[in-house]
Amino acid sequence: MLAKSEQSLAKTTHDFIDDWLESERLQGKSEATLDTYRRGFYRFTKWLAENEISSPNSRDVAQYRADMLAAYSNQTVNLSLSAVRSFYRYLVSVGATPYSIASDVKGTKRANANQHKRSELSAGEVLDVLATCESGDDHDTPQGVRDRAILTLMAYCGLRTIEIQRANLTDLKVNGRMVLWVWGKGHREADEYVVIPREQERIIRAWLAERAKFGENSALFISLSHRNCGERMTTRAIRKLVKDHYHDAGIYDDTKTTHSLRHSAITSAIRHGATPMQVQAMARHTSFNTTLGYIHEVNRLDAPAED
């Protein structure tokens, strides 16, 4: 897809795409994300072929966006554009093209963009989910201790699934307060941190005590199953863990997913008086508008003009 010839186009598509996806894998992208990128980029190459475009430019990418909007949902369009932008960023990074033809083509906002599709958990539901980690005897199981630590980081610090999966033992620091350095989505390293609430530090320490019994793997959270005990947990295993505890707590609402714990952490901070800047720092939102979306949602429900 360099501005050279149809032969160059074929070379880019066939020779660069695997290298691009591998580079994304090395940066920590999950297999699910890579599959989404692959499918999204395939839609773009199919569109180019159908329109007999061998050397696309920025206007072509913009037209692709317009044509996609006429046939697909906003989410599908944005996912495909994200793949296209990622691919051309990679080409620039390896010197295969001097600039990205997709960098100026923005995604599209869905209707009611300030309204989240996933529901938060109530304070009572969060406590009920955490309570399912207890074994009922004098000593909790290692799995219960681990799961409580994971759920706590999600529900009190707003960690995403991928951030739990990437966390290392060395990312935990104590200097007056216990903090966890976080490798967030779109980042190449753990370059932001969350502060563990004082009352929850004991939950993390309890897991560290158990964790020390399972080898020297760098991962903070490891599998405890017989098949791959001691290995870093996968994002799939973490999502299943959360879903299982939801069901144990009697929560079967399809709109309440793993992300709902993060959603609950953010909205709870807002309701308990955290400033917008404090909420943005905790949630690690790149754009302040994302934080404002949560604030708007809370205010709309808790202090509606209709009252």
Poorly predicted sequence stretches spanning 5 or more consecutive residues: 1-11
Which whole number gives the mean pLDDT?
A: 87
Total helical elements? 12
Number of strands: 3
Strand percent estimate: under 5%
Computed Rg: 22 Å
Largest sheet: 3 strands, antiparallel
What is the overall shape?
globular
Q: Work out the helicity level.
A: 40-55%
First-last Cα distance: 57 Å
Strand order of the largest sheet: 1-2-3
Order of helices and strands, N to C? HHHHHHHEEEHHHHH
- SSE class: mainly alpha
Defining traits:
307 residues; mainly alpha; three-stranded antiparallel β-sheet; 12 helices; 3 strands; 54% helix; disordered N terminus
Short description:
With 307 residues, this protein is mainly alpha-helical. It has 12 helices and 3 strands, in the order αααααααβββααααα.
What does this structure look like?
A hairpin with a 1-residue loop joins strand 1 and strand 2. This protein has a three-stranded antiparallel β-sheet. The protein is built from twelve helices and three strands; from the N terminus they run αααααααβββααααα. It is mainly α and 307 residues long. The N terminus is likely disordered. It is 54% helix and 5% strand.
